[in-house]
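Q: Second attempt. The first request was missing the SMILES, so the protein and magnesium ion are both included now.
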Amino acid sequence: MSNEMYLEWYRQLVMIRRFEQKSSEMYQLGKIGGFLHLYIGQEAIAVGSVAARQENDHVITAYRDHAHALVVGIEPKLIMAEMFGKVTGVSKGKGGSMHLADVNRRFWGGYAVVGGHLPLATGLALAEQYKHTDSATLCYFGDGSTNIGYFHESLNLAGTWQLPVLFICENNQYGMGTAVARASAVTAIVDKAKAYGLPASQVDGMNVMKVYEATQKALAAIRAGEGPQFLEMITYRFEGHSMGDPLRYRSSEEVEKWREDDPIGILERHLLSEKLADKATLEQIDKSVEQELEAAVKFAEESPLPSADDLFAHIYVEA
Amino acid sequence: MARITMRQAISDALREEMHRDPDVFIMGEEIGVWGGTYAVTRGFYDEFGPERVRDTPISEMAIGGAAAGAAMAGLRPVAEFMTINFAFVAFDAIINHAAKVHYMFGGQMKCPVVFRAPGGGGRQLGATHSHTPDVIFAHFPGLKVVSPATPYDAKGLLKAAIRSDDPIMFIEHATLYQIRGEVPEGDYVVPIGVSDIKRTGSDVTIIAYAQGLQVALSAAEQLANEGIEAEVVDLRSLRPLDMGPALESFKKTFKAVVVEEGHRSYGIGSEVVARLQEEGFDYMDAPIKRVAQFEVPLPYSQQLEQSALINADRVIAAVKEIL
Ligand SMILES: Cc1ncc(C[n+]2csc(CCOP(=O)(O)OP(=O)(O)O)c2C)c(N)n1
Ligand SMILES: [Mg+2]
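A: Got both inputs this time. The predicted holo structure:
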């Protein structure tokens, strides 16, 4: 692992964290509407796993998608503008927080119907298998999504057809207010994947280095022709499910305990103790993130709204 | 010109498109080794192999979603639902994903998938297997919905659907598979979203599609024996809906009957009637009639089932009411 890579991971972790905090602020100011799902606490998963992808790998995820959009390389200002409903947004103001995508980066977006994108991921992988490429598809979803039919049909199909897809379950312990054990007959989610013949392992989802390593290994297995793979990332969402979550379903002690494993703190301690970076370098990164976010908000503020004509654009490719 | 069945016409369209474009492939339950439950894809497995003729598990959600995903990534999948009744299980994949990604992501991606689905009543299959739910799919912008009534249109429309960059629901009425019609040799397409006059006449306009069109034509023939000349318009596509020929005809006959196999309430007929009165109010000489399936789940017992479905007699009676 090069120093540069560690520092880039650190930058991305901080960027996601601060981006989410900024989004929350903008939401409270009424600049962002609709639903807003924050990724705070889960940052290491998007950062570590996308770092392990090769350029032609696909990425697709659920509505908690800001982080994935950022780490595939979409500029923060284009995401902020999307959430402000501006025409300069990644999805031209038609998608919002839950529907960010950039096809040029092979990021197929966030999807807001729980589990609905799992078969899409399976189809992306099918297309690559059909074309005999070495591209894999990274498909992210939550613990709650493993209870919907889409999950089971997609894993079964991927297993049957040996499709090059990596299913990444971000087990943040809850689907909205429902703890895993209250909704899933099998609480080790890897066991569900194993039932469909997929090699599956649990990973410390708070540690970006472990996420990276596990993802690299899984992608290598896919490219070696070993078929679809499954990773269960053990993590926690520090904030509510979405804005306005009354948080009645968990104790503050529980949250505090998980916060000790803050993914930024884990990497920061590693960098400092191994002398891979000094405090000043990290502070410099923090500052540059701050500046980029200020500029992003300014860009979103100043961007134009979509026009009346945009309403009817893109319903069909062919009129 | 050869007279072939609608089954053959659809099969030929699929086969020719698979030969024309290596990105076209088919997937669905029992389409391969079995040859298709309606035998539309018989022989395809041997001809094209398991890569391009993909037997799927019984997983409608995954069939709908994976076909959409493969289309997003650049392929041209034709996914078959064994019957349209089972496409209900895949409704979310079709409506929320295939039909929405182009718009929802600001035009970045396209989803050129074709969903083929045999449907319709009249075969004593009982309440769950006899739906004609075409209007439900036609409700949503983003999806195109096509349902042919003749072998010629079936072949040309399916080719157009496969070549289209938009997601398309291609609905085949299962009782039409055996009907025969003239189909020319060689390649042609029938454009999506264009209605067609199937019979000319000056006394009344009958607007229909798919199996309803065949019922309308047979009613028109019997009416002709009594000296009543009906003009019969075939909608062919339900979305986009081309009202041009129907309106033109209505402005000539001043009277219209709309025929469909689906239920009457909130149906295709409701939409067509609404548009006729909005755009042709000054030409209206009589109430516009709707002939459609009665508001009951379809029963098994043959006579009972037939009594709930449309037939030529009901169309004739509707015409006579307004003449
Ligand atoms: C089919 C469907 N049912 C219900 C919802 C409402 N809903 C949105 S998110 C969510 C919880 C999903 O939990 P999980 O998969 O664990 O993801 P997380 O939010 O924890 O990231 C629910 C029930 C939905 N969007 N789609
Ligand atoms: Mg969860």
